[in-house]
Predict the structure of ClpP/crotonase-like domain-containing protein.
Amino acid sequence: MSESTILVERIEKIGIIRLNRPKNLNALSSALIEELLSALRIFDKDPAIGAIILTGSEKVFCAGADIKEQRELSFVRAYNTNYLRNLNDGLLGVHKPVIGVINGYAIGGGCELAMMCDILYAGENAVFGQPEIKLGTIPGAGGTQRLIRAIGKSKAMHMILTGDTINASEAESSGLVAKVLPVNEVFEAAVETARKIAGFSAPVTAMAKEAVNEAEEVGLKSGLHFESRLYHSSFSLADHVEGFGAFLEKRTPQWINE
Ligand code: HXC
């Protein structure tokens, strides 16, 4: 049997997925992508899980598409099989918040995978880049679209057209990541945040995530309309009654996820 390309564990209500192809710097082989998407689907469906952490090792998050695999692909095969579209579509389909913990290289498809997460925490050794231009290709899993939204056009264009990388503190100051911490502290900090998120009402958390993600898709007017619809829908939840009641009665809310 071939070795697993990911490691999966649970800490309380948090599902943890670690990319695990150390010899290839966690490059995105088809097998890894399949296992990753399957683990995400399982956690997303499991009512005992409230948040997901996606990470690599303390040395590397992911060095992008598997170069050996991609080299063998003709245009027609990539086109017919929709190569790597499943990664993007799979992550977009996850209702629960996904926190990416990035140590070391997040390069090419690795940077794109990081940007598919909802919140990013980086270790001080993190390096982000879209070096596809050096290989004779372009970012293919959202890099040209998400990087500009994350850090603005000039910085995104600079990274994509030069292949130059940015370090953790540049990633933080440009808004790509939420926090930078020492490598030996960053995972625990993400667990703490995931624990906090998983402690809220699950349907409300999913609504908040969906409304924020909608902002990346539509103009302001449509986005505000979408937000209003979800906001008003939340009034019908038992957890809404509970949350408002608990505040006014000065007690801790007991969420039932309904
Ligand atoms: C397959 C890879 C790989 C990759 C590294 N390796 N990146 N294998 N696919 N993307 C392998 C190397 O061949 C080597 O194998 C081993 O991992 C260790 O890599 P080194 O280069 O020796 O490590 P280091 O000197 O630390 O340099 C790290 C690095 C470099 C700077 C990240 O590995 C690098 O530049 N890798 C390529 C990154 C890249 O261009 N990614 C974009 C891919 S295209 P051996 O057998 O020699 O030990 C892409 C398109 C997006 O992502 C598509 C959407 C998903």
Remarks:
- The longest helix spans residues 30-45.
- The mean pLDDT is 96.
- The first strand starts at residue 6 and ends at 11.
